Amino acid sequence: MTSRTSQDSSAGRRAAPALTVWIYESALGATAAEVRLKTLRSRGAVEVHDAITVSWMPGSHRPLIGHLRHEKSTPYPRASVLAVLVGLIFVPPAAGVAPEAHLADLAERLVGTGIDRTFLEDMKAQLHPESSALLVLSGDADLDVVRPVIERGLARGDVVLMHAQMPPGAPEILRAAVLDLKAHGA
């Protein structure tokens, strides 16, 4: 497996907001990632705004979304922004709309978040039946602590890592965009 990064954040010890997607080639792989994330959070190494697991069981037509429990309050207490985003990625496009156009429209709505069309297309292509993923919308992260945990998974070859570095304020833009799309039935 490989690592895909839309923008590299290795320039310093602390990272700005980011969307990280850990994709596994098994429907239960994200469960192990969830344990790793909880360990990082308990060490104070990462500030989690939102996190979900996505598991695509054999025979299912769509992936199942699981919500991770937040140990303390987050800026997003009600709806999971990431659950809505995954739902928007995998919802069948409206009649007469090509799947590529659907993702292009979604990417256009996410301008300013650091999440582009290529990122969305790669994520959709990597998630398929019998795979799973952990999606984490994070704030501040201690890269000296987080990096070795991620690198171990990459070294084992059991994870594809996707990472979108986000500008300041992007999590709020993402939340507004996906909730607006959901409200309008997009």
Summarize the topology.
Elements: E1 3-5, E2 14-15, E3 18-24, H1 29-42, E4 46-55, E5 64-67, H2 81-90, H3 99-109, H4 117-126, E6 132-142, H5 143-156, E7 160-165, H6 170-183
Parallel strand pairs: 1-7
Antiparallel strand pairs: 2-6, 3-6, 3-7, 4-5, 4-6
Short description:
The protein has 186 residues and is of the alpha+beta class. It has helices at 29-42, 81-90, 99-109, 117-126, 143-156, 170-183, and strands at 3-5, 14-15, 18-24, 46-55, 64-67, 132-142, 160-165.
Could you describe the 3D structure shown?
β4 and β5 (64-67) form a beta hairpin. The longest helix is centred in the N-terminal third of the chain and has 14 residues, at 29-42. The chain has helices spanning 29-42, 81-90, 99-109, 117-126, 143-156, 170-183, and strands at residues 3-5, 14-15, 18-24, 46-55, 64-67, 132-142, 160-165. 39% of the residues lie in helices and 23% in strands. The chain is built from 6 helices and 7 strands, in the order βββαββαααβαβα. The protein is globular and about 45 Å long. Strands 1, 2, 3, 4, 5, 6 and 7 form a 7-stranded mixed sheet that branches. The protein is an alpha+beta fold and 186 residues long. The chain has one domain (3-183). α2 crosses α6. Residues 1-12 and 71-77 have low confidence and may be disordered.
